[in-house]
Design a protein that fits this description.
Number of strands: 11
Radius of gyration: 26 Å
Order of helices and strands: HHHHEHEEHEEEEEHEEEHH
Strand order of the largest sheet: 2-3-1-5-4-9-10-11
Distance between the termini: 17 Å
Helix content: 40-55%
Shape: globular
Largest sheet: 8 strands, mixed
Number of helices: 9
Length: about 350
């Protein structure tokens, strides 16, 4: 382990010890906000410190075994034991060192946040809208397997049961870390129920994933907002409100428009619309910062064109293919019922490997 990495780990371990001491102080225990913040910091440091202690113990055992072997004069049985300890501890130390390289990679500060997911039908008309509904169901079922709560913020349905556009929040610690790789164009290949000739149609759906923004993250000046109210209307004339409870908020400086008509209460619709607006503005700010750091960066959500895709769902073959990492899984039914961990884990692993390569260049 190089000196720079060791110094960083020693510093983290010292901070870990200080946090443990602070959390025992009465002044901290009685201040719930401070206590929660310090506990969050401690939780983030814990995996690093635990792995570093594993490394140090293994390294110590390795050095002790090496000293015994170098000194010589051991009988055969004792030498075999020392050699076994030498090999095992060296392997453990090497593995722990590689794990520490990953744990020390810069953390995405949004990983622990709630997430707002926006799904829109792209190319393919009603078939795209129907598949947008399938993706919403898939993500909702996946969230429920994690014990997270999906909540619809805004919904615009078609008359045939499809979804033109939906925004929903998933509340749960770590939600963003699991959903953030879903952004992009999703392509579906299947035979629509209305297709009498049995021909396969191709449609696209766009997905945007935004970390939930807090008021402290982004300052929205009320003077920059144009707020309009109108009567909500459901698909096919269903659930039409007789009051102007639907809300449209326009952020004048950026031209960002958010509509929400899911609730019958104007106040609730406004709250939900503001959540979406803040998150969109925060994401736009993050993209600007990333572009300044990394040069040209592809937009998170494309046009919905068939050729611009991150994933294909092929119903006839029972296949889901993620084109970014070249992974195909032949379990489309299970995945559309929320079994997404294998795919998401593979995406996280590929991202970690890419960042690790970047840190070593």
């Amino acid at each position: 382990m190089d000196a720079g990495m060791k110094d960083k780990l020693e510093s983290i371990e010292e901070k870990f010890e200080r946090l443990n001491e602070q959390l025992c102080e009465q002044s901290v225990v009685s201040d719930m906000e401070l206590y929660t913040r310090l506990m969050r910091e401690l939780k983030q440091l814990t995996p690093v410190v635990e792995k570093y202690r594993v490394y140090k113990a293994a390294q110590k055992s390795f050095e002790e075994a090496k000293t015994l072997l170098d000194d010589g004069g051991l009988d055969r049985d004792f030498r075999e034991m020392a050699q076994e300890e030498y090999d095992a501890s060296r392997e453990l130390a090497d593995r722990a060192r590689e794990d520490l390289k990953i744990l020390l990679l810069p953390r995405d500060e949004n990983d622990d946040r709630n997430v707002i997911v926006e799904i829109r039908g792209g190319a393919g008309g009603e078939e795209a809208a129907l598949f947008a509904g399938v993706l919403f169901r898939m993500y909702s079922m996946y969230a429920e397997t994690k014990g997270w709560k999906p909540e619809i913020l805004s919904l615009n349905e078609t008359g045939l049961g499809g979804i033109k556009e939906i925004s929903f929040m998933i509340e749960g610690e770590g939600a963003y870390s699991r959903f953030k790789f879903e952004s992009g164009v999703h392509r579906v290949q299947r035979v629509p129920e209305t297709e009498s000739q049995g021909r396969i149609h191709t449609s696209t759906v766009t997905v945007a994933v935004l970390p939930e923004a807090q008021e402290v993250d982004i300052d929205v000046n009320p003077a920059d907002l144009q707020i309009d109210t109108f009567r909500a209307s459901g698909a096919g004339g269903q659930h039409i409100n007789k009051t102007d409870s639907a809300i449209r908020i326009t952020h004048l400086p950026t031209g960002t428009v958010v509509e929400c008509q899911d609730e019958r209460s104007q106040h609730k619709n406004k709250d939900k619309a503001m959540k979406i607006l803040r998150s969109r503005l925060l994401e736009a700010e993050r993209e600007k910062q990333n572009a300044a750091i990394a040069g040209e960066r592809k937009a998170q959500v494309g046009t919905g064109d068939r050729s611009e895709r991150i994933r294909t769902y092929n119903y006839p073959q029972g296949r889901v293919s993620d084109h970014r990492i070249g992974l195909s899984l032949y379990k489309i039914e299970a995945m559309l019922n929320g079994d997404l961990d294998e795919l998401i884990d593979a995406l996280i692993t590929a991202d970690t490997a890419a960042r690790l390569r970047g840190s070593e260049e």
